[in-house]
Amino acid sequence: MTNDTSAASSGARRGGLLPARLRPLSRPRVWVELAFSAALYVAYDCTRSLVPDHRIAAMHRASWIWHAERVLHLDPELAVNHAVNHVRWLIVGMNYYYATLHFVVTLGVLVWLYARHAASYRSARTALYTATLLALIGFTFFALAPPRFLTGDGFVDTVVVHHTWGSWGSGHVSSVSNQYAAMPSVHIVWSTWSGLTLAALAHRTWVRVLGVCYPLATFTVILATANHFVADAVGGALTLAVGFLIQRLLTGRMAYQRVSGDRDRRHGVGEPPTGPDARPAPPADRPATPLTTAGPAERRPAPAITRRPDLQDPPGRRCPARWRGMGASEEQRAAPTRPRWGRQHPDPDGPPSPESRTRSPGPGDGPGDPPRRTSPADLVPGRRVRDRLRLALQMITAALTRK
């Protein structure tokens, strides 16, 4: 018993660094998720308090990254920023896109994942929170100014020019935000995570297509609004990849899983189903059926064929020789064969009369020949055909049951 317990414990831990009790597939409690969100906000507020000490260094790093991208010819930021800035309705829409969808889409995907795909929620949430925590560490030790602060290089601050409300650069929002949190891009981290989640778990094709297009649209928006460099987007993608890698090491499973059988969108995995899909629990006194057996399973004997009383043949009727032993009763096997001729009874449901049991002399019968008696089974019209069809069906059923 001790060896079995230790083997099971080691097998449970072999899948991931966390013990099995800390990586279940069931849906977590809501207050636990709210506590995680509050902890992330507190960590972000700590990084915002370090902004005054990093402002000059952040501007120098931004100039260096812009120069490096121009040397490598990976500098589409300025061209995209100027091209979109000429279309007022488009650039204003992108400013609001950058300010709002960043939170709305991510929160909506989290709620959808919690409600519909409980088996994947813990793993996917762990990857997202881990990547966000790594991004906060990057903000602390590598503060970087966005391109819109480099006005001397030709960038247009679209938030200031078009007076967009609610963006990070607006007056009342900038006071509570970290303006130098550009590397890595959290917009890319969250949008890519949302897109991957929808593409992996959504059942409708158009939703999966939207999941693929959403991070690409976000990448275009962060360049057009001059809020991030291309290097910031690459850093965000790498940060999310590291977050998924850490999640895989901790839990030992893929972040996105589809549950076979009943969809986990109805109830969490490990939670008993309720409603019309619920099945009655087995009695408590019934012994549990083992999942595995030591030896090969024993073959159960084929169930005996029971025939309905109303389908029994008359005692005097004998089935053909080729059907013997295939559902025939003992009386039928022992009954002698009788000749099958004679006049049929006019009433199939009534008993045969004594007169109908004798056959009238026919051609070829001598005047002194005694009248021949008929079988009761031959007096009902179609009785022989029905009997043969019924016995053929019983023969097929018996053959299938033996298999």
From TrEMBL:
Pfam families: PAP2_3 (PF14378). This is Phosphatase PAP2 family protein. It is found in: Membrane. Residues 260-386 are annotated as: Disordered. It comes from the Bacteria. Residues 260-269, 297-311 have a biased composition (Basic and acidic residues). Residues 64-245 form the Inositolphosphotransferase Aur1/Ipt1 domain. Keywords: Membrane, Transmembrane, Transmembrane helix. It is a multi-pass membrane protein. The keyword Cell cycle does not apply. The chain crosses the membrane at residues 96-115, 127-145, 180-202, 209-230, 236-256. Its main location: membrane. The keyword NADP does not apply. Residues 273-285 have a biased composition (Pro residues). InterPro entries: Aur1/Ipt1, IPC_Synthase-Related.
